[in-house]
Amino acid sequence: MVIKGLLPSWAIQRQQPELTQQLYTELRGYEYLGTSAAVLVLLVFWEKTAANHLHLFLVIWLGVMFCLYTLQWRLLREAGPELSYEATKRWAPRNRVMAFLIAGGWAALGPLLIWQLDPWQTLALALLLFSVLAMPVSAYSNDYPSALLSVLAIAVPTLTVLLIKQFSQPIASQFWLLATFGTGALLCLLSGHRLSQARRRAINEQNELIKARVNIASIERELRRERDTDPQTGLGNRRWFEHYLQQNYVAPATPFYIIALSIDRFSDVTPSFGRHAADFILQDLAGQLNHPEALRQLAARGDSDCFLILYEGMESGLEIEETVSQLFKLFKSPFCWQNQPLTFTCSLGVAGWHSHLDDSAHVIENALLSMREAAKTLGNSFRMHDSKLQENVKRQAILRRELVEVTERDELFLALQPKVILASGQVTSAEALLRWMHPELGFVSPADFIPLAESTGEIIVLGRWVINEATRLLLKQDMPSGFCMAVNVSVLQFTDPELIPTVARALKKLEGSGCTLEIEITESVFMEDSARVIKAVKELIELGAKVALDDFGTGYSSLATISQLPHHTLKLDKSFVDAITTDQKQATIVKAIIQGALLMGVDLVAEGVETKAQCELLRDFGCQLIQGYYFARPMKEDEFFSWIKNYGHEPDLESLEKRLSVSVT
After folding, report:
1. Is it the case that residue 432 has pLDDT exceeding 90?
2. What is the rounded distance in angstroms from the CA atom of residue 369 to the CA atom of residue 347?
3. 53: helix, coil or strand?
């Protein structure tokens, strides 16, 4: 590569790979044109060179050009059909050297022939050289140094011979030929430079466009990653999880099952230890669930403290048992936050893919549903999804939807359960219990719709309806004079600004009837917002309503509640009454509570009395009122008034047992 060493550094500098790739494409076939031009020179000027004994040199020149174009052909073909991006660094310098050699070959033709030709033949040769000049200028416009070398290599020797010939034999036509050839060479250089600059700008613009597209693609990938990733744990979120299942399992019908996992009482972490502690626990658990050793599972983040875990294969008893056991083991060791161990349990819901489920979202919903059912029993519990559970969900969905307007459809009614004064056998009060008779679902248990109403806030509307309906019953002519109707008020009702006005309107309607309302509240109401509840209770008492503390003894601060909350009645929970005839300790506790109520001057109602033995023992302890199936079940309006009409005031329990054997559903 001696010639390469003689070339200036700017002539062999590295070009942009994009330019070189385009140059490679445009040069394909260039060697055929060059070879054809060389053969044409031999045919046109053979006779002239033979006369001057220069044909031997012309044949040698033609052989050299054949060799150069053959090397050019090999150089263009050795890279393959397309020049790779990485091969441009090696290919470009070699091609420049080859371009210079070919240009040098054509440059030798000028001194060889022009001196021996007449003006017309010289013109023909000049046109041929111009055509040869045009090829490197056009082809090498991407690589301007190569074009410049080619033009100069051809033009300089030719112009030199023309100048010498003009000075030795001044001819006007020859002068114009010299001027034309020089001007043409200059135009080739200028046009080549402008074309090169234009192509470089185009390439740069193309590169900028490519960079912009790359940046846009990168931003889109980042947005997709953020959209599909949970920011707290780095796991995929539910959207990504559903898409992954649909693409890899549901569509190809590959069997799998999902376990939904939630941390019990996780909501207590942030108020107690802060948000960073909660994030730490979630991240630690996420790392364990997505551990590389767990080859068959893939974890994703669901909602809040919920995780979704994928397992391949069908659900089977032994396999599920082993899987659940492994997940429970994760919670045996405490999570250490700032050297403080935090221990948790978890709830698991299991659901598998079946042929009738064509949507991954259904499987996930089934697993979450099972998890929520398991969460009702704290302490490492799990639940398998089944058809019964699905039916319960559908039933709950119907109830949730129809609770909104249930008070307007005449489906609700109050079931009244009497309270009996043990000393006299009189019935002067009753508890109004809300019931729902659905036209399609039939009787709906309060255990089903009351919690649902509280979770949706509809309990406020239901509570107003109960107060108004109880007032209507108290105003009926069949209601005994001085009767008291007890209605239950929930925690959410104390947040209702219409609670006090509603009770006030009801009591105003009852003025002159001798009847009144009793508001039953539980300790949970007091614990939620004691200051507000105490204020509301005092207002209710000032209006003339009575207040009863329901389910007494089941909370953690019953004594504190008695001392702070104004009330007229204590209702002893059924759980105390059940065991008083068989458990002496329980009986002693109940006796102490009854005596304490007497000392405080409040009435005490024993709930859930079902046997004669319980009734006799409570009377011996001094209990004033009892309520339970021993005397009557909760009754509809007509049944209650019929029962009251036929009821006799008999303090003798044996007589009462005979007369009150009627059981009303």
Report:
1. yes
2. 11
3. coil
The pLDDT score that the predictor gives to residue 356 is: 52
Q: What is the DSSP string of 141-164?
A: GGSHHHHHHHHHHHHHHHHHHHHH
Domain made up of 408-656: CATH architecture: Alpha-Beta Barrel (3.20)
- Gap between the Cα atoms of 348 and 116, Å rounded: 103
Query: Contact at 8 Å (CB) between 486 and 513?
Result: no
| Mean pLDDT value across the chain | 77
Class of domain 238-385: alpha beta
Provide the residue ranges of all domains of the chain, joining segments of one domain with +.
2-210, 238-385, 408-656
CA 177 to chain centre: 80
- Burial class (CB within 10 angstroms; exposed 0-12, middle 13-18, buried 19+) of 143: buried
Cα(90)–Cα(83) distance, rounded to whole angstroms?
11
Instruction: Identify the pLDDT of residue 133.
Output: 61
The whole-angstrom separation of Cα 581 and Cα 588 is 11
pLDDT tens-digit profile of 454-497? 888 888 999 999 999 999 999 988 888 889 999 998 888 888 88
The pTM of the whole model exceeds 0.85? no
Give the span between the Cα atoms of 229 and 291, in whole angstroms. Answer: 17
DSSP letters spanning 82-110: S--GGGHHHHHHHHHHHHHHHHHHHHHHH
By DSSP bridging, strand 335-337 and strand 340-342 are antiparallel
